[in-house]
Automatic annotation (TrEMBL):
Source organism of this protein record: Thauera mechernichensis
Enzyme Commission number, as recorded: 1.1.5.-
Protein name: PQQ-dependent sugar dehydrogenase
PANTHER family, A to Z: ALDOSE SUGAR DEHYDROGENASE YLII (PTHR19328:SF75), HEDGEHOG-INTERACTING PROTEIN (PTHR19328)
Ranges where the Glucose/Sorbosone dehydrogenase domain occurs: 50-379
Enzyme class: oxidoreductase
Length: 384
């Protein structure tokens, strides 16, 4: 069936009311209780004092890593304490949206201490998204054997749209999301460019032989999917193992997609968004036969960032839901799925008025969010 005939159900807005704060002081209290459709949720201020935090990643012993965009990485203790900055982080281009970005432990971290992180790497022209691996020495708080395993092959000027989420697949390969860098958006359709792509690499930076474009002349073999604007949320579907992503649209047209191998996601030729300032239509419309349509699109834009599938037991009514942070709308969107269709959205934490940069499920089953506005890590748990 051609893609133009595929059904695309818009988001069912059965309830678009944000959660209500039941208990707080004049400022954010250490514990705040909010009302949701599935019961009251306690929001606890777990760690504070961070400078523009971007990502958190849990370690096997319950501690977590946190990146700060200016170029620092720290360890957060199980009591919420912050370590000194970890030594050995490469220099970063900490301008605009650039800096130190995502971090994830490798699947073999418990044995070898390997982590992978992404950053805006300074170049003579400006910067490009790069990925490095390193051994984390938790006792000495330093990175050892730092090795860059990937860098975009173009470094356009400007300080926007670095993308930069990292996700390990079940087979140990690594997905890297790459933005269009703002002014280079036409290159998102070019298959000899890393601009506006998802790439899939091995932990040593090599190309997996089953990538969709391997062996095709003139195409970068690490490309997994293309036609993306700025993906800042990515996670594996817990049942299918597929990579799901979300990306920023311009004025409207934020998208959630299944990033499937070899497919074109349209940007900038096919989009629901419009130009800033003028409001003019971008490209050729919102659909085309050779372009994979989004599972969901937000207009107006919520500016999504951070994404997680909830699979824990603490919130049984959230099981199988997608949790998406939002910067502009300052909330967490809880998306209820029916297969690959989004049936319902509930908007959480909007009254707190904080830019949510990352959202993760912890090994304890609680939901953890990064509050970029105040430099904090918050924990969500059912209220007693």
């Amino acid at each position: 069936m051609p893609k133009s005939n595929r059904s695309f159900r818009p988001l069912l807005l059965a309830s678009m009311l944000a959660s209500s704060v039941l208990l707080s002081g004049t400022t954010f209290a250490r514990d705040v209780v909010v009302r949701t459709e599935t019961g009251n949720v306690k929001v606890t201020e777990f760690a504070t004092g961070l400078d523009t935090p971007w990502s958190i990643a849990f370690l096997p012993d319950g501690r977590m890593l946190v990146t700060e965009r200016p170029g620092r990485m720290r360890v957060v203790g199980t009591d919420g304490s912050l370590s000194a900055p970890i030594a050995g982080v490469p220099a970063v281009h900490a301008r605009g949206q650039g800096g130190l970005l995502d971090v994830v432990p490798s699947p073999s971290f418990a044995q070898d201490g390997l982590i992978v992180f992404s950053y805006a790497e300074p170049t003579q022209r400006g910067a490009r998204t790069a990925v490095a691996r390193a051994r984390l020495d938790l006792e000495r708080l330093e990175l050892r054997e730092v090795q860059r395993i990937f860098a975009q092959n173009e470094d356009p000027s400007g300080n926007q749209h670095f993308g930069s989420r990292l996700v390990f697949a079940a087979d140990g390969t690594l997905f890297v999301t790459l933005g269009d860098r703002g002014g280079a958006r036409e290159r998102a359709q070019a298959l000899d460019s890393h601009i506006g792509k998802v790439v899939r690499i091995a932990l040593d930076g090599s190309v997996p032989p089953d990538n969709p474009f391997v062996g095709r002349a003139g195409v970068l073999p690490e490309i997994w999917s293309y036609g993306h604007r700025n993906i800042q949320g990515a996670a594996l579907h817990p049942q299918t193992g597929e990579l799901w992503t979300h990306e920023h649209g311009p004025q409207g047209g934020d998208e959630i997609n299944r990033a499937l191998p070899g497919l074109n996601y349209g940007w900038p030729e096919v989009t629901y968004g419009r130009e800033y300032v003028t409001g003019r239509k971008i490209g050729q419309g919102s659909s085309r036969d050779d372009v994979e349509p989004p599972l969901l699109q937000w207009t107006p834009s919520i500016a999504p960032s951070g994404m997680s599938f909830y699979t824990g037991e603490r919130f049984p009514q959230w099981k199988g839901n997608v949790l998406v942070g939002a910067l502009r709308y300052q909330l967490v969107a809880r998306l209820v799925l029916d297969g690959k269709e989004v049936r319902h959205e509930e908007r959480l934490l909007a009254e707190l008025g904080r830019r949510i940069r990352d959202v993760r499920q912890g090994p304890d089953g609680y939901v953890w969010v990064v509050d970029e506005s105040e430099g904090r890590i918050l924990r969500l748990e059912p209220a007693q």
